[in-house]
Amino acid sequence: MKRSKTMEFGVGLFMLAGIVGLVFLGLRVSGLSLSTPTQTFQLEANFANIGGLKPRARVTMAGVTVGRVESIDLDTDWYDARVVMSLDSGLEGELSQDTTAAILTAGLLGEQYIGLSVGGAPEMLADGDTIRDTQSALVLEELIQQFVSSMANN
Amino acid sequence: MHAACPKEGYAPMTDTPFIEIEDLHFSRGEHDIFRGIDMRIPRGQVTAIMGPSGTGKTTLLKLIGGQLTPDRGRVLIDGQDVHRLSRKALFALRKRMGMLFQSGALFSDLNVFENVAFPLRVHTDLPEAMIRDLVLLKLQSVGLRGARALSPAELSGGMARRVALARAIALDPELVLFDEPFVGQDPISMGVLVQLIKRLSEALRLTSLVVSHDIKETLSIADYLYLIADGQVVAHGTPQTLDANQDPRVSQFIHGEPDGPVPFHYPADEFYRDMLGPARPQGAK
Amino acid sequence: MMPSLLNKSTAQVTRLGRKGCDTVESLGRAGAFLLQSSVGVPSREGFSLWLRQMHFVGVLSLAIVLVSGLFIGMVLALQGYTILVDFGAEQALGQMVALSLLRELAPVVAALLFAGRAGSALTAEIGLMKATEQLTSMEMIGVDPLKRVVAPRLWAGFVALPILTVGFSVVGIWGGYLVGVEWLGVFEGSYWSNMQASVAFASDVGNGMIKSLVFAVVVTWIAVFQGYDLVPTSEGISRATTRTVVYSSLAVLGLDFVLTAVMFGGL
Fold first, then answer.
1. Which InterPro entries match (chain A) (predicted)?
2. Which residues, other chains included, contact B185 with Cβ-Cβ below 8 Å and sequence gap of 6+?
3. What is the C-alpha R_g of chain B?
4. How far apart are CA C99 and CA C204, in angstroms?
5. What's the rounded Cα separation, in Å, for the pair C161 and B183?
6. Which site among C36, C51, C53, C141 would you substitute to test the B interface, given the most B Cβ atoms closer than 10 Å to its Cβ?
7. What residues of chain B lie within 8 A of the CB of C141, using their CB?
8. Residue C204: its chain A contacts at CB < 8 A?
9. Which helix (H) or strand (E) holds C154?
10. Residues C108-130, buried b or exposed e (16+ Cβ, 10 A)?
11. What are chain A's partners, defined as 3 or more CB pairs within 8 angstroms?
């Protein structure tokens, strides 16, 4: 009987270790936070070219992460990319209407993310609004093409 | 247990045989094992089925226990057709049977006590104290009460078979099937087993069915014998009548003669032709 | 000459056909077996049998799985570092280690180790019970060996392997940390933050777990079925044990490709 008690204890410990491990994978490795998911609001932005931007990419402001890209799809009205971002609700009503969104690259080969910078207009963006002023991703091939054609023109 | 509380449909002791086997056919692949076997196993007696090894005696026990299904014919146990029963009814019927396997077949992860307690725990809701008493009683009857804490790996072959016997009678069955109970036993444990089977069968009024090819031991405990060979019943009768039987197949087996209707040689070409023939690789046609 | 050649080829075709039929038949038997044994009403008794098997297949496999995970994490970090440093991207080491472990290496390697450590033992154990007529005698006592012997082992395998996989990942990531941060001098903050930025719980950890669950079902199923279905001789047991390891390894690697294509192929 004693042996079976230690065995039960061992199995219990084993299962507990599994749960603790899963929690570790959640918190430490995938960066989930225990606090209730922060309140967010959504903004949209249309880009002529998103380059290599992916859903779940960071949205930053002055280098500080303030949100994530929720979804990317093709807008068939203008044939450009519509990007939906969810931002910290702390910023709701704090961003001016002429805020610009640019697709930036971390380093030469790094991931692409969206950088926001505020303007000076008095009206503020609300949930579901669209950022008008956007700057597409830099596509290396296009840059080279421009460079080559300008050289040819000279 | 069952003797104390007869179930519905439990026929009172009558002269009808406990097991009836009618026109049983069974084959494995293209190999016919039984070709029309008829048997009647009377209640409360020790019946032995004998035959040379390889005649499917163990298969017959599996057919009786409902683990194999015959190609034709039927097996009636206490009036119930074993192979027509639902799974549930078959398991209920098996509760009334015990089976002693050639190897003992003790559960290797349980000790001796738990092995004997196993059928009780599975089929009854008896309190722990009563299970303990019953198990010790059964172990006492096979003389192994002192070995209750051992694991099956620590038992000798004879002891394992005795524990298995205690387990087979744990639920006080009406029928016990013995599969080669004497095989590979030293003379002492052989004697012990013969004694046990005889005594227990009498004391518990068991119907016993012994499958064996150990003639001397089997003749000494059996009330009635069936001799099978070539998939058929060759002869049957009491030990005395079989001993006097003049059929060469019967007397070869009963008296253990090396050559006779069952040949010594495996079928082959004539010897001189094989020896003088051209050299060729073995097994080539 | 002609007729004998014809005969020979006919015989060969016949043999091939029979082999095909046998394969389909044993697959059918294996499916029915899985269904019959894994579906059932849980009971108190079944729970304690399950617990016992959890000890055998889970707790006792923990050591080999954790040690392997540690070394694989360390090797990943070492190899990854030498490649990443060429691009000046050694900060991405944590991301690389974590993603390769979570998505791929932990489920697959843990399943392979599990097949070798626990699967072969399950096959041999059940095979031995069959060879010594324990399964038959259980049936004669009126207990279904599928429920009593097979079901607890199946369920223990189903639960144990995903837990072992979690352990493998955690220890592997820690091993990567030891080599990358403590030894090679990658900045600790970027090791963790790059990891956290790139690992998504649902799609990386979750999909890895789904993989591991699928492998658990397949490996345990193969192991237990091979044990239950083997020819009950000592040669049969050794062959079935080999088959368990071979079949489960192939099944794990093949399924891994299919699952990866479905889960991450779209990215």
1. ABC_MlaD (IPR030970), Mce/MlaD (IPR003399), MlaD_Phospholipid_Transporter (IPR052336)
2. B157, B158, B161, B193
3. 21
4. 7
5. 44
6. C141
7. 94, 118-119, 122, 167
8. 30
9. helix C151-177
10. bbbbbbbbbbbbbbbbbbbbbbb
11. C
Query: Closest residue of A to C160, CA-based?
Result: A15
Our measurement of the distance from residue A153's CA atom to the centroid of its chain's CA atoms, rounded to an integer in Å, reads 39
ipTM: 0.78
* Averaged pLDDT for residues C126-154: 88
Q: How far apart are the first and last CA of chain B?
A: 62
CA C220 to CA C65: how far, in whole Å?
16
User: Is chain C adjacent to chain B, meaning 3+ CB pairs within 8 angstroms?
Assistant: yes
Taking CB atoms and an 8 Å limit, are C205 and A11 in contact across chains? no
pLDDT digits (tens, 9 = 90+) for C175-200: 999 999 999 988 888 888 888 878 88
Residue C132 DSSP one-character state: T
Find out whether C211 and C107 touch, Cβ atoms under 8 Å.
yes
* pLDDT at B1 exceeding the cut of 60: no
Q: Do chains C and A touch (3 or more CB pairs under 8 A)?
A: yes
Report pLDDT digits (tens) over B190-247: 888 888 888 888 888 888 888 888 888 888 888 888 888 878 888 888 888 877 777 7
Residues of A in contact with C163 (CB under 8 A): 14-15, 17-18, 21
Mean pLDDT (whole number) for C153-176: 95
Q: What is the DSSP letter of A96?
A: B
Query: Which residue in C258, C240, C4 sits closest to C122, CA to CA?
Result: C240
Contact across the interface for B118 and C136, Cβ inside 8 Å: no
Looking at residue B103, its amino acid is S
CB contact under 8 A, B65 and C140: yes
Tokens of B211: 């499958």
Output the six-digit token pair for B268.
Answer: 């082959």
Instruction: Identify whether the C-beta of residue C134 lies closer than 8 Å to the C-beta of residue B113.
Output: no
The conformational region for residue B7 under phi > 0 = left, psi -120 to 50 = alpha, else beta, is beta
Helix C151-177 and helix A2-24, axial crossing angle in degrees, nearest 10: 50
Residue C140 contacts B, CB cutoff 8 Å = yes
Cβ-based contacts of A32 with chain C (< 8 Å)? 201
Residues forming a β-bridge with A114 = A59, A103
For chain A, helix, strand, coil in percent to 5 are: 30, 35, 35
Could you tell me the two tokens for A103?
A: 């697709």
Torsion of CA C258, C262, C266, C267, to 10 degrees: -80
Q: Nearest by CB to C132, from B92, B103, B118: name it.
A: B103
Nearest to A18 among C48, C98, C163 (CB): C163
